[in-house]
Design a protein that fits this description.
This protein is mainly α and 398 residues long. The chain is 72% helix and 1% strand. It contains 19 helices and 2 strands. Helix 8 runs antiparallel to helix 9 and helix 12 packs antiparallel against helix 13. The model has no long low-confidence stretch (mean pLDDT 80).
Length: 398
């Protein structure tokens, strides 16, 4: 109630300020200022006559002319127009319009009835949302079903048999790997994530971070894009093994973004967006969301543009003749190499240049760029991870 009282008082104050000039009383009528001027001229003529500076004939002629002007000026007064009923009505209309527009705009853009939400209350609500979010099973139940896959009957029959066989062989790693793969192909992501979890359990210490990445992808997809508490455990385990893992950083950022902490999401996504391979699924997804997260966090941020040859360009070049491929890639990377040499750029651009040189078979140039990039980004683990992958693919680190 206090909020609405304050709004009403402020709106009325603004309306009053706009209407005040129309309602201000008129100033009293004032004599024409020319009257005083002509009287002063008559006095000056009398003084000139007394000092015998003007001949009588000229003095009389001058007095007659000034007196005529004085008589005309004395009949003119500066009388303001009196305020009529239309002026008062206009003032009332202005007041009503200001009130109506103000409350219409607030109803459209504001939050009527929404209580005060100070920063600490928002932080507490965000923490509670993370602590009390639904489980993986609940999220999978609520998630919309993916469109069915048009698979041959022989294929679905074989997978049904695999679903029957795998539980009877709890220690058969190959059976569970096949089940995880084929359930994913059929878009049964919940069943695929359970099979992948079994694969990791069977591998034990031999399970790789890539195995965990597959599990994490499947869990989030099965949950309709939400990060469950169970998925968060996988994220934390991956970050304990590799604090710069792109998939884990993306999904942790997604968790914070989903629980009203876009500031944390922005910090986690920025490094992978600016340094990661733009062809990577998690990098691409982060690029699509980071500007919105920055806006909600009150941060001015513009997504860096993608420049230079893409991975698709390089892959297409491999189907050309050696001469055509060399010419095409050479033209694409010439501008990128020149820009990086003169202006610098994000680690993703350096990684793309290293990869392009590798496709050309120019390992000398690839190694030169790798050494220079490592010198520039040596203190940034996320950037170095992307650069190292590019250098390995280009044959620089073999």
């Amino acid at each position: 109630m206090l909020f609405w009282l304050v709004c009403i008082v402020l709106t009325l104050a603004v309306a009053a300020m706009l209407a005040a000039p129309l309602l201000r009383p008129a100033a009293p009528a004032m004599a024409n200022p020319d009257v005083a001027l002509y009287r002063a001229q008559l006095d000056e003529i009398d003084r000139d006559i007394a000092r015998e500076l003007l001949p009588p004939e000229e003095a009389a002629q001058a007095r007659t002319e000034v007196a005529r002007r004085l008589l005309a000026a004395s009949k003119i007064t500066d009388t303001p127009t009196a305020k009529g009923a239309h002026t008062i009505a206009l003032s009332l209309i202005i007041g009503v319009v200001v009130l109506g527009v103000s409350f219409a705009v607030y109803r459209e853009l504001g939050a009527p009835g929404y209580g005060d939400l100070p920063l600490q209350a928002r932080l507490d609500a965000s923490a509670q949302a993370r602590a009390n979010r639904p489980s993986q099973a609940a999220l999978e139940t609520a998630a919309p079903l993916p469109p069915p896959v048009d698979a041959p009957e022989t294929y679905t029959t074989a997978i049904d048999q695999l679903r029957t066989i795998a539980p009877t062989r709890p220690d058969d790693l190959q059976a569970w790997e096949l089940l995880a793969f084929h359930e994913s192909e059929l878009r049964n992501f919940g069943a695929a994530s359970q099979a992948q979890a079994r694969v990791i359990a069977l591998k034990g210490d031999a399970a790789t971070i890539e195995d965990s990445r597959r599990l994490l992808d499947l869990m989030v997809i099965a949950a309709g894009g939400f990060v469950s508490p169970e998925a968060e455990l996988v994220i934390r385990d991956m970050l304990n093994r590799d604090e710069n893992n792109i998939a884990a950083r993306y999904y942790l950022g997604a968790l914070y973004d989903q629980t009203d902490r876009p500031d944390f999401a922005f910090r986690l996504w920025r490094a992978i967006v600016e340094n990661g391979d733009p062809q990577n699924f998690h990098v691409t997804t982060a690029r699509a969301q980071i500007e919105n997260a920055a806006f909600r966090a009150g941060i001015e941020y513009s997504l860096p543009p993608l420049r230079g040859p893409s991975a698709a360009d390089i892959e297409n070049a491999q189907d050309m003749t050696p001469e055509d491929r060399q010419a095409m890639i050479g033209n694409m990377i010439a501008g990128l190499a020149d820009r990086l040499a003169n202006e610098g750029g994000p680690a993703s651009d350096w990684a793309r240049l290293i990869t392009a040189y590798g496709v050309l078979g120019d390992t000398v140039s690839a190694r030169t760029v790798w050494v220079e990039a490592a010198d520039v980004f040596g203190a940034d683990p996320a950037a170095m991870a992307a650069l190292t992958d590019a250098a390995e693919s280009a044959g620089v680190l073999e």
